[in-house]
Design a protein that fits this description.
single chain, mainly alpha, 19 helices, 72% helix, globular
Length: 354
């Protein structure tokens, strides 16, 4: 590869293997977060940022796929997009939700059980981030699904924008980003209805940033500008160090942390032989990244199981994290093999022809 990659080389890269490695880096902090009895202070309490990294990856990848489909075929098939996403996401999600429902249906009555069953329609329709009370004073079953609801709402809207004039997609991403930041910064008026505020707050800034990155890289001029920053072998390690420094510092604005995540995603995509490739594409790292969706679905159940088996150690976060991960990984692999892998040929047939 030349010192800086070309736009044609980027467009000709069919997939970005290092993003599986980034998914591994995203899911492990989330598992740690749910293994702790309460959010610890300092660096160890920053586990939820893993969800933001997932969002940045998703915004970039989905937008890239849509833009490339339009570039190659002149149009985007929204129906095929929904079919592919549905086959990828729904089977495993509804299987886990169904098993969770059966378990709590058979449990004795409790506030936790009643809260979960009462909100089951919202878990089932990916609207939990709008309607569920996440601070009822007792554990919230299936609470992790709020992020999946955010993702699904993005999928519901975004492919239609890919069918619109080219300039509309980045403009929409900027407007959505501004709307989310208006909530984060307290600019949105307090007189807004609560449901409207929650819906605006459910917009994920990292998804918008990832989408903007994809729009910029798809454009020849935008790519030429960004490759000066992201096109060097050292760009990915520098982006990771910058992200780590912001996380460790602790007081950096969240939007800067999310921007650093987005730049890290871009550095791993613009140049496939980047400096982090040996780490992010190592087999164990890519394996965890490949099953990260299934791992996200089952890790809370695995952590709960470890706490139930070792109640005297339920407050020992390192033990629960290691034990929960040791249980969750084989469960996630089984879920991936039983549900996702058999559907891969069907999803492949729904992809646009080269």
């Amino acid at each position: 590869m030349p010192s800086l990659p070309t736009h044609d080389h980027y467009l000709g890269t069919p997939r970005f293997p290092s993003l599986d490695g980034l998914r591994c880096l995203a899911v492990l902090p989330v598992v740690w977060h749910h293994a702790t009895p309460r959010p610890p202070s300092g660096l160890l309490g920053r586990g939820p940022l893993g969800v933001d990294l997932f969002f940045a990856i998703s915004g970039f990848l989905i937008t890239t796929l849509l833009l490339r489909e339009r570039r190659t075929h002149g149009a985007v098939s929204v129906g095929r997009f929904y079919a592919r996403r549905g086959l990828r996401i729904f089977p495993a999600y509804y299987l886990v939700l169904g098993l969770t429902t059966l378990r709590w249906w058979l449990m004795p009555g409790s506030p936790t059980r009643d809260h979960f069953l009462h909100n089951l329609p919202y878990w089932a329709t990916y609207t939990s981030n709008w309607f569920v009370d996440f601070a009822p004073g007792h554990p919230v079953v299936f609470a992790f699904a709020w992020s999946l609801a955010t993702e699904e709402q993005f999928y519901a809207v975004w492919p239609w924008l890919a069918k619109a004039p080219r300039a509309l997609m980045p403009i929409a991403a900027l407007l959505l980003l501004a709307a989310d930041q208006s909530v984060e910064l307290g600019i949105l008026g307090a007189d807004w209805p609560e449901l409207a505020r929650r819906m605006v707050a459910s917009i994920a800034s990292p998804i918008c940033m990832g989408a903007l990155l994809a729009c910029a890289l798809d454009d020849e001029r935008g790519f030429a500008d960004l490759r000066r920053l992201l096109g060097w072998r050292a760009s990915a390690p520098i982006a990771l160090v910058a992200l780590a420094a912001l996380v460790v510092e602790g007081n950096a604005p969240l939007v800067l942390v999310q921007l650093a995540m987005t730049l890290l995603v871009g550095a791993c995509a613009v140049r496939v032989d980047h400096g982090l490739r040996p780490v992010l594409e190592a087999r164990p790292v890519r394996f965890v990244g490949t099953i990260s969706y299934a791992l996200y679905l089952v890790h809370v159940a695995a952590i709960t199981g470890v706490k139930g088996l070792f109640p005297s150690l339920a407050g020992n976060a390192p033990f629960v994290f290691v034990g929960g991960l040791a249980l969750a990984v084989p469960l996630a692999y089984a879920l991936h093999r039983l549900v996702d892998v058999p559907l891969q040929p069907l999803r492949a047939r729904l992809r646009p022809a080269p």
